[in-house]
Amino acid sequence: MIARLRGLLDSSAADACVIDVNGVGYLVSASSKTLGALGGVGAAVVLHIETQVREDAIQLFGFLTEAERDSFRLLTSVQGVGGRVALAILSVLGPDELAHAIAAVDTASIARANGVGPKLAARIANELKGKFGNVALLSAAPLPVGIGAGAVADALAALAGLGFRPMEASRAVAEAQAELGDGAGVGELIRTALRKSAR
Question: Which of 56, 123, 148, 158 is 20 to 30 Å from the Cα of 195, by its Cα?
Fold first, then answer.
């Protein structure tokens, strides 16, 4: 199995690129975030690779970081999530954002990816909840907030009413809760979240 490729970027398309390794061109599917960070044709490239072998094809998926590759592996462990859908999700959400969205059961953010409807987004959030701990620790993301009853849920709803996207609201409230503690009231959470998000 191929685990890593080091070579030169030969060409790039909307959902894949060709990496020239000593004269051999490897077709590698990747997220738009990864493809956008590769640089121009001829640039030196190192990609972590996930190899999928099927009856009719061998497909390579490439990632700039191990965290993105690990997120891909977790996503494809969910029934109904193939390689292309997993890449579509990672094109919208980086590993830390995805970990945060799953911990917060933020299905709206997950469903922004092409090919992901509300039911699949809910299945991803439910099946992967608690499995992104290591990925989240690799990033500088704040501790996630679960959506539930009480001040946190009220603060999330208030920020959503002010135009925050679900993930932005969850991140801001998480930071506020980390600063104020679990016993903080709704008003305190909202004020602190607004101050931390500088909106």
Answer: 148
Phi-psi region of 108 (alpha: psi -120 to 50; beta: other; left: phi over 0): alpha
Give the angle 110-82-37 at the CA atoms, nearest 5°: 65
Q: Are residues 156 and 117 in the same domain?
A: no
| Angstrom distance (rounded) from CA 44 to CA 141 | 29
**Section 125-141 average pLDDT:** 62
Kindly tell me if the per-residue pLDDT of 123 is higher than 70.
yes
- C-alpha 135/C-alpha 116 separation (Å) is 22
Q: What is the pLDDT of residue 35?
A: 93
Residue 81 sits in a domain whose CATH number is 1.10.150.20
53 and 90, same domain (yes or no) = no
What tokens were used for 22?
A: 């000593």
Hey, which residues does 61 pair with through a beta bridge? 29, 50
φ and ψ at residue 86, rounded to 5 degrees: -60, -40
pLDDT digits (tens, 9 = 90+) for 137-193: 344 344 444 444 467 777 877 877 787 777 777 778 777 877 787 677 888 888 888
Q: Which of 41, 63, 85 is the endpoint of a domain? A: 63
